[in-house]
UniProtKB/TrEMBL annotation:
The lineage of its organism: Bacteria, Bacillati, Actinomycetota, Actinomycetes, Mycobacteriales. This is Lipoprotein LpqB. It is a lipid-anchor. InterPro entries: GerMN (IPR019606), LpqB (IPR023959), LpqB_C (IPR018910), LpqB_N (IPR059026). Belongs to the LpqB lipoprotein family. It is found in: Cell membrane. The gene is lpqB.
Length: 570
């Protein structure tokens, strides 16, 4: 990585009272919650108890206030009795529920009420504001006492519970960036932060200093020496100490992390970074994204991508108004079933007719160059390339995840099996497997459900899939297709009444895409920076990624009337 400047550098068990509440999820460490999200939010605007407020309304006010961590949850504590406020531990866990329901329990008296509170758990916020999808039920018993003529909560479980709408209202998602374990590419680590705009830069840098989230840690670098510390902003410079033993190449990578984290959060540059009283990188007073363009995490978020399509067993290259067969076997074939193609012309494809009783053939090649058979099996999922096209993945017979690597020295192909640590009870067939652009994440469709995992790289070069979670649980078993969008989210095709969905990278939410003229099921999806593609029951359709609120999906020029499968080269 080069730095361009005037001088170039070298490179719920604990309760606050006698009534216990429980949730069917384990306790997690507390998120890194900071100050109020927007400057106009203040103590005056935070929810507070109202004189004479009925107990059920006061309880709902408490849950709304619990989403604001300002002043050690001062607003939420105002709803509690003095004893409960002192005993309540909001840091034990932070659950996100779809909605909160409550029912009055029998046995209420003039000065005491008890409520059964419940909700469907959809996720948790963990250390540093990392969101993790969860599936479970929150159930708790909350007691209220009359104190000086006002209802106050006297007993409640430890931890914080918030509705999903409050997460979106009070927290904001930001991207932190850490290098993959080969120090080649920046990988997104999405966090939910509750921070004032004027302190946002410092708060994000503090999170970068803590390193990657627990889920991503096995796939990323970013661990600084214990001596390294962020000491705040002085005279417009972000200052650090304890970097005396950190070599220049590691300083440069750390600077790239900080610069891209701040830039994508809307903190304008250039940025001054100093360590132990000197510029973090020798010879550089200020830094900006132009200095780290070679590791830009936005590399796929701008421009356009070459579109290919698979139709009638052959692959065609789609131009402005026409589609022409590609060179070699892919363009001549009559039985290509799926393919993945890179911007540099590498391809991997599966050949074979479905349900013909004959093994399918998995082949790799390059346009205008070599082609080779890898192996045969009853079925293969659509292949998926790693970021540098040095390896390609597929799933044989719905079970065996395979990774094929070509030797740079001899050109020989070697295929090994990738182990996946799936959640308990998940043992279905994998129908879709797609690697993210950086190769750090993987999305899978297993028995119609959507899962994502992290690709762990062993020192021996082997890969495994770990920390697998189910996303978009509301879709049930209706998921048919899934792929990555350039911004790190997913485009998902289903057989349901909402045939196209956007699912966020961390699984925190999903959004139905325009579907007015789509006929489910959507059997294939693809995305470029400017366009979404789907294959529905009738044709290959496209829509711009931005513009009208409810755009119409239109047939792809050059493939009108053709039910083709889209392939966005990357």
């Amino acid at each position: 990585m080069n730095v361009r400047k005037k001088v170039l550098a070298v490179v719920l068990a604990v309760t606050a009272g006698p009534a216990a509440g429980c949730a069917s999820l384990p306790t997690n460490s507390a998120p890194h919650v900071l100050r109020s999200f927007t400057p106009e939010e203040s103590e005056a605007s935070a929810p507070r108890p109202v004189d004479g407020q009925e107990p059920d309304l006061l309880l709902r006010g408490f849950y709304a206030a619990s989403a604001r961590p300002d002043g050690n949850y001062e607003a939420a504590r105002s709803y509690l009795t003095d004893a409960a406020a002192s005993a309540w531990n909001p840091e034990e866990e932070k659950l996100v529920v779809d909605s909160i329901g409550m029912t009055t329990l029998p046995g209420s008296t003039v000065g005491k009420r008890s409520f059964a509170v419940h909700g469907k758990v959809v996720g948790t916020l963990r250390q540093g504001g990392a969101y993790t999808p969860e599936r479970g039920t929150y159930e708790a018993t909350i007691e209220l006492d009359m104190v000086d003529g006002q209802w106050r909560i006297s007993s409640l479980p430890a931890g914080v519970v918030m509705e999903r709408t409050e997460l979106r209202n009070q927290y904001q998602p930001y991207n932190l960036y850490f290098f993959d374990d080969e120090d080649r590419e920046l990988v997104t680590d999405r966090r939910w932060v509750h921070s004032a705009r004027e302190t946002l830069a410092s708060d994000l840098i503090a999170l970068v200093m803590e390193g990657p989230s627990e889920r991503l840690r096995s796939a990323l670098t970013g661990v600084l020496p214990s001596s390294a510390a962020f000491t705040g902003v002085r005279d417009g410079a972000y200052t650090f100490t304890g970097f005396g033993g950190v070599p220049q190449d590691e300083r440069t990578r750390f600077a790239a992390q900080v610069v891209w984290t701040l830039a994508t959060a809307g903190v304008t540059g250039p940025y001054r970074l100093t360590a132990d009283g000197e510029p973090l990188i020798d010879g550089t007073d200020t830094l900006d994204t132009d200095d780290f363009v070679d590791v830009s995490p936005l590399v796929e978020s701008v421009g356009e991508t070459m579109l290919y399509a698979l139709s009638d067993g052959k692959v065609v290259r789609v131009g402005d108004r026409s589609a022409q067969p590609v060179e070699g076997e892919l363009g001549k074939s009559t039985d290509a079933a799926s393919a993945d193609i890179t911007n540099t012309g590498e391809w991997a494809a599966v050949f074979g007719r479905p349900d013909d009783g004959v093994d399918d053939v998995f082949r790799v090649g390059r346009f205008g160059g070599r082609e080779a058979e890898v192996m045969r099996a009853g079925t293969f999922t659509r292949p998926s390339f790693e970021s540098d096209a040095g390896a390609v993945w597929t799933v044989a017979d719905g079970k065996r995840i395979l990774r094929t690597v070509q030797s740079a020295a001899t050109g020989d192909l070697t295929t090994s099996e990738v182990k996946a640590e799936l959640p308990d009870g998940v043992d279905g067939k994998i129908s879709v497997l797609r690697l993210s652009r950086t190769g750090t994440r993987v999305v899978m469709v297993i028995d119609g459900c959507l899962y994502t995992g992290i690709v762990r790289r062993a020192t021996s070069g082997e890969r495994s899939i770990v920390n697998v979670y189910e996303y978009a649980q509301e879709l049930g078993g209706s998921v048919v297709a899934a792929d990555w969008r350039p911004d790190g989210s997913f485009i998902v095709g289903t057989s349901s009444s909402t045939p196209v969905m956007r699912v966020e990278q961390d699984g925190s939410s999903m959004t139905a895409q325009s579907s007015g003229n789509i006929s489910a099921p959507v059997v294939a999806v693809a995305a470029s920076p400017n366009t979404l593609y789907v294959t529905d029951a009738n044709a290959l359709l496209q829509v711009p990624t931005s513009g009208a609120d409810n755009p119409i999906w239109r047939e792809v020029p050059g493939l009108e009337g053709v039910r083709a499968l889209p392939i966005a080269a990357r």
